Model the fold of this input.
Amino acid sequence: MKKISESTSKKVRLIYGWTFTAFTAVVGALFIWQVLDIYLGGVASGQSSPFSRGLVEERLGIIAAPFWIWIAMIAVGFVLWEIFAVEEKISPVTDPRYVLKRLQKRLPKEAEGELKSSLEYVKSQQKFLNIIHGVLLAMVCAYLIYVVVYLCVPSNFPNVDKTADMLNMAKYLLPVAAVVYIAGVLYVTAYKISAKNQLPYVKKLVAGSKAPAAKQNKFMQIVTHKYFKLGVRIAIACLGIAFVIAGCFNGSIREVFNKAIRICTECIGLG
Done:
C-alpha cells in the first residue's frame, strides 16, 4: 500500500477542519434560531412556559437532519485522523516530559561508578512524582465520592426553588473542585520541572548503558498498530451509533428530550 504523503494528510485535515467548523456554526445557529422562535412565540393558553414538550420536539425535528449529519462528520473525522496521520513533532526544548518519557524506556536497571548516583537521583525523582500523582488521584476520587454523596441526599434538593438549590450546590461543590484543580496544576508544574532536571542524568545513563533496547513482543506490535487502533475506534463508533438507533426505536430519545426540556424550564430557568 502506497504511503500517503504528509503534505496530503495536512491538506485533508485542514479542509475537514474548516468544513466541520463551518457546519458546527450552522447547526448551532439553527438550534439558537429554533429556541428563540419558541421563546418569542410567547406562552400558549393553558401553559406556564412557552417550552412545551410537543413544541420543542416539533422544532427540534426540523433541524434533525443537519444534526445527524454533524454527528456523522464527527465519526468521519476519527477515521480521517487515522488514515491521514501526521507525525506529531514536539520540541524537546519546549516539552522535556516527552523526551523523558521516551528515554525512560532505555534506562538501565543498575549502574556502577559515576552513573550510580545519577540513577539514584532519577529513581528518587520518579518516586516523588509517583507519590504526588497518587495523592492527586486520591483527591480526585475523594471529590467524586463527595459529589455522589451530595447528589444522593434528598434534603439538599427540597424542590422549592431550583435556582436556590443549584446555587447551594455550587457553594458546596465548586470550592472543593477548585482545590482539586489547583492540585492538578501544581502536579503538572512539578512534573515539568522534575523532567527538566532529570533529562541530563537520564541522557548520561542512556549513553553509558550498553544494554540493548527491549524488543516489543508480537502481541504489543499488533495492539499498538495504527490499523488495529483504527478498527477499535470504528467498532466503538458503530456500537455507539447502534445504541443511538436502538434508543430512537424504544422511546428513550423522547425521555431525553423531556429531561432536557425540564432542565431548561425548571432548573436553569430559561423562559
